[in-house]
Specification:
Blueprint (H helix, E strand, L loop, with lengths): L17 H18 L9 H14 L4 E10 L21 E11 L2 E11 L3 H24 L3 H15 L2 E2 L6 E2 L25 E8 L6 E7 L7
Antiparallel strand pairs: 1-2, 2-3, 4-6, 5-6, 6-7
Amino acid sequence: MTEAVRLPREGVGETFSLAKMVQARDLTFEAIGRIAPRIRAGMTEGEANARVQTELEAMGMDRLWHKNILRFGEGTIETFHAPMEPDRVLRADDIFFIDLGVVWDGHEGDAGDTFVVGEDAEMKACAQAARDLWHEVAGRWRDDGLTGEALYQYALGRAEAMGWRLNWEVKGHRVSDFPHAIYKAGDLGGLETCPKTGLWILEIQLAHPTRPFGAFYEDLLIGEAAA
Protein backbone atom coordinates (compact mmCIF):
# COMPACT_ATOMS: atom_id res chain seq x y z
CA MET A 1 0.00 0.00 0.00
CA THR A 2 1.31 3.43 -0.89
CA GLU A 3 2.08 5.60 2.13
CA ALA A 4 -0.19 8.63 2.40
CA VAL A 5 1.42 11.95 1.59
CA ARG A 6 1.68 14.19 4.63
CA LEU A 7 0.85 17.74 3.58
CA PRO A 8 2.62 20.62 5.35
CA ARG A 9 0.80 22.18 8.31
CA GLU A 10 1.08 25.60 6.71
CA GLY A 11 0.50 24.48 3.14
CA VAL A 12 -1.92 26.35 0.88
CA GLY A 13 -3.71 25.66 -2.37
CA GLU A 14 -2.85 26.97 -5.83
CA THR A 15 -5.50 29.69 -5.57
CA PHE A 16 -4.33 31.05 -2.20
CA SER A 17 -4.02 34.83 -1.93
CA LEU A 18 -3.04 36.67 1.25
CA ALA A 19 -4.95 39.72 0.03
CA LYS A 20 -8.09 37.59 -0.35
CA MET A 21 -7.59 36.17 3.13
CA VAL A 22 -7.55 39.69 4.53
CA GLN A 23 -10.62 40.57 2.46
CA ALA A 24 -12.44 37.47 3.76
CA ARG A 25 -11.53 38.45 7.29
CA ASP A 26 -12.81 42.01 6.75
CA LEU A 27 -16.09 40.85 5.22
CA THR A 28 -16.71 38.47 8.11
CA PHE A 29 -16.22 41.25 10.64
CA GLU A 30 -18.48 43.45 8.52
CA ALA A 31 -21.17 40.79 8.76
CA ILE A 32 -20.79 40.68 12.54
CA GLY A 33 -21.08 44.46 12.64
CA ARG A 34 -24.32 44.30 10.69
CA ILE A 35 -25.80 41.46 12.71
CA ALA A 36 -24.97 42.46 16.29
CA PRO A 37 -27.24 45.56 16.46
CA ARG A 38 -30.17 43.41 15.32
CA ILE A 39 -29.81 41.00 18.25
CA ARG A 40 -32.09 42.29 21.00
CA ALA A 41 -33.41 41.19 24.38
CA GLY A 42 -36.30 38.77 24.06
CA MET A 43 -34.92 36.99 20.98
CA THR A 44 -34.04 33.31 21.09
CA GLU A 45 -30.80 31.78 19.84
CA GLY A 46 -32.81 30.09 17.10
CA GLU A 47 -34.30 33.37 15.89
CA ALA A 48 -30.92 35.09 16.00
CA ASN A 49 -29.22 32.33 14.04
CA ALA A 50 -31.82 32.66 11.31
CA ARG A 51 -31.00 36.37 11.05
CA VAL A 52 -27.29 35.57 10.80
CA GLN A 53 -27.86 33.27 7.84
CA THR A 54 -30.12 35.76 6.08
CA GLU A 55 -27.53 38.53 6.41
CA LEU A 56 -24.69 36.37 5.10
CA GLU A 57 -26.72 35.35 2.07
CA ALA A 58 -27.63 38.98 1.40
CA MET A 59 -23.92 39.87 1.49
CA GLY A 60 -23.20 37.29 -1.22
CA MET A 61 -21.16 34.72 0.66
CA ASP A 62 -19.87 31.68 -1.26
CA ARG A 63 -20.82 29.25 1.51
CA LEU A 64 -20.20 28.49 5.17
CA TRP A 65 -17.11 26.53 6.08
CA HIS A 66 -18.25 26.13 9.69
CA LYS A 67 -21.70 26.43 11.22
CA ASN A 68 -22.85 29.81 12.50
CA ILE A 69 -22.31 30.08 16.26
CA LEU A 70 -24.35 32.50 18.33
CA ARG A 71 -24.38 32.01 22.11
CA PHE A 72 -26.52 33.83 24.69
CA GLY A 73 -25.94 34.16 28.42
CA GLU A 74 -24.74 30.94 30.01
CA GLY A 75 -24.05 29.63 26.52
CA THR A 76 -21.09 32.00 26.24
CA ILE A 77 -18.96 29.61 28.31
CA GLU A 78 -19.66 26.76 25.86
CA THR A 79 -17.13 25.76 23.20
CA PHE A 80 -17.64 25.45 19.44
CA HIS A 81 -18.94 21.87 19.47
CA ALA A 82 -21.68 22.40 22.07
CA PRO A 83 -25.16 22.30 20.51
CA MET A 84 -27.17 25.45 20.01
CA GLU A 85 -30.02 26.01 22.47
CA PRO A 86 -32.67 27.35 20.05
CA ASP A 87 -35.09 28.33 22.84
CA ARG A 88 -32.55 30.15 25.04
CA VAL A 89 -33.73 33.78 25.38
CA LEU A 90 -31.49 36.85 25.52
CA ARG A 91 -32.37 38.72 28.71
CA ALA A 92 -32.57 42.46 29.29
CA ASP A 93 -29.11 42.49 30.94
CA ASP A 94 -27.17 39.81 29.12
CA ILE A 95 -24.18 38.93 26.98
CA PHE A 96 -23.82 37.16 23.64
CA PHE A 97 -21.16 36.33 21.10
CA ILE A 98 -21.11 35.70 17.36
CA ASP A 99 -18.63 33.36 15.68
CA LEU A 100 -18.77 33.14 11.88
CA GLY A 101 -16.82 30.99 9.45
CA VAL A 102 -17.63 32.10 5.92
CA VAL A 103 -16.06 31.52 2.49
CA TRP A 104 -15.70 34.66 0.37
CA ASP A 105 -14.16 34.40 -3.10
CA GLY A 106 -12.79 30.95 -2.28
CA HIS A 107 -11.07 32.03 0.96
CA GLU A 108 -12.03 31.37 4.54
CA GLY A 109 -13.05 34.22 6.79
CA ASP A 110 -13.32 33.52 10.50
CA ALA A 111 -14.16 36.16 13.10
CA GLY A 112 -15.86 36.41 16.46
CA ASP A 113 -16.78 39.11 18.94
CA THR A 114 -18.87 39.59 22.09
CA PHE A 115 -21.64 42.09 22.82
CA VAL A 116 -23.65 43.16 25.84
CA VAL A 117 -27.27 44.27 26.10
CA GLY A 118 -28.17 46.23 29.20
CA GLU A 119 -25.85 47.69 31.81
CA ASP A 120 -24.12 44.77 33.52
CA ALA A 121 -20.65 46.17 34.24
CA GLU A 122 -18.97 42.79 34.68
CA MET A 123 -20.31 41.54 31.37
CA LYS A 124 -19.04 44.67 29.63
CA ALA A 125 -15.64 44.22 31.29
CA CYS A 126 -15.45 40.57 30.21
CA ALA A 127 -16.26 41.40 26.58
CA GLN A 128 -13.59 44.09 26.52
CA ALA A 129 -11.07 41.87 28.29
CA ALA A 130 -11.37 39.23 25.55
CA ARG A 131 -10.58 41.86 22.90
CA ASP A 132 -7.76 43.38 24.92
CA LEU A 133 -6.14 40.03 25.61
CA TRP A 134 -6.40 39.04 21.95
CA HIS A 135 -4.53 42.18 20.89
CA GLU A 136 -1.93 41.72 23.60
CA VAL A 137 -1.24 38.11 22.56
CA ALA A 138 -1.19 39.03 18.87
CA GLY A 139 1.31 41.74 19.71
CA ARG A 140 3.64 39.17 21.24
CA TRP A 141 3.41 37.20 17.98
CA ARG A 142 4.25 40.23 15.85
CA ASP A 143 6.95 41.66 18.09
CA ASP A 144 8.60 38.57 19.56
CA GLY A 145 7.86 35.75 17.09
CA LEU A 146 6.39 33.43 19.72
CA THR A 147 5.34 29.90 18.76
CA GLY A 148 1.69 28.92 18.84
CA GLU A 149 2.32 26.99 22.04
CA ALA A 150 3.99 29.98 23.69
CA LEU A 151 1.17 32.31 22.66
CA TYR A 152 -1.37 30.28 24.61
CA GLN A 153 0.88 29.82 27.61
CA TYR A 154 1.23 33.60 27.66
CA ALA A 155 -2.54 34.05 27.26
CA LEU A 156 -3.19 31.72 30.19
CA GLY A 157 -1.00 33.70 32.55
CA ARG A 158 -2.31 37.06 31.41
CA ALA A 159 -5.96 35.98 31.72
CA GLU A 160 -5.36 34.95 35.33
CA ALA A 161 -3.57 38.22 36.06
CA MET A 162 -6.52 40.13 34.60
CA GLY A 163 -8.97 38.25 36.84
CA TRP A 164 -10.55 35.94 34.25
CA ARG A 165 -10.37 32.24 33.41
CA LEU A 166 -9.03 31.28 29.97
CA ASN A 167 -10.89 28.44 28.27
CA TRP A 168 -7.93 26.15 27.67
CA GLU A 169 -9.90 23.97 25.22
CA VAL A 170 -10.03 26.84 22.70
CA LYS A 171 -6.61 27.20 21.08
CA GLY A 172 -7.04 28.58 17.56
CA HIS A 173 -6.79 26.87 14.19
CA ARG A 174 -5.80 27.07 10.52
CA VAL A 175 -7.59 28.90 7.74
CA SER A 176 -6.69 29.19 4.06
CA ASP A 177 -8.20 28.99 0.62
CA PHE A 178 -11.12 26.58 1.01
CA PRO A 179 -10.84 23.89 2.29
CA HIS A 180 -8.00 24.30 4.77
CA ALA A 181 -8.88 21.01 6.49
CA ILE A 182 -6.89 18.94 3.97
CA TYR A 183 -3.72 20.05 5.76
CA LYS A 184 -4.71 18.53 9.14
CA ALA A 185 -2.85 21.35 10.83
CA GLY A 186 -4.15 20.93 14.37
CA ASP A 187 -4.61 23.72 16.89
CA LEU A 188 -2.59 26.91 16.91
CA GLY A 189 -1.85 26.14 20.56
CA GLY A 190 0.01 23.01 19.46
CA LEU A 191 2.16 24.71 16.84
CA GLU A 192 5.85 24.45 17.78
CA THR A 193 6.92 27.19 15.36
CA CYS A 194 5.99 30.84 14.91
CA PRO A 195 2.77 30.90 12.85
CA LYS A 196 2.96 32.46 9.40
CA THR A 197 0.89 35.51 8.61
CA GLY A 198 -2.59 35.05 7.18
CA LEU A 199 -2.96 31.34 7.99
CA TRP A 200 -3.95 31.09 11.64
CA ILE A 201 -6.89 32.20 13.75
CA LEU A 202 -6.06 33.27 17.29
CA GLU A 203 -9.03 32.57 19.57
CA ILE A 204 -9.51 33.93 23.07
CA GLN A 205 -12.40 32.71 25.21
CA LEU A 206 -12.67 33.96 28.77
CA ALA A 207 -15.02 33.09 31.61
CA HIS A 208 -16.01 35.04 34.71
CA PRO A 209 -14.36 33.45 37.77
CA THR A 210 -17.67 32.92 39.62
CA ARG A 211 -20.62 33.87 37.40
CA PRO A 212 -21.90 31.68 34.50
CA PHE A 213 -20.91 33.77 31.50
CA GLY A 214 -17.89 34.45 29.34
CA ALA A 215 -16.67 36.27 26.26
CA PHE A 216 -15.07 35.32 22.96
CA TYR A 217 -12.93 37.12 20.43
CA GLU A 218 -11.09 35.74 17.41
CA ASP A 219 -9.30 37.20 14.42
CA LEU A 220 -6.73 36.36 11.77
CA LEU A 221 -3.07 36.71 12.70
CA ILE A 222 -1.73 39.08 10.04
CA GLY A 223 1.44 41.13 10.01
CA GLU A 224 1.21 44.89 9.88
CA ALA A 225 2.22 45.01 6.21
CA ALA A 226 -0.55 42.63 5.15
CA ALA A 227 -3.12 44.35 7.36
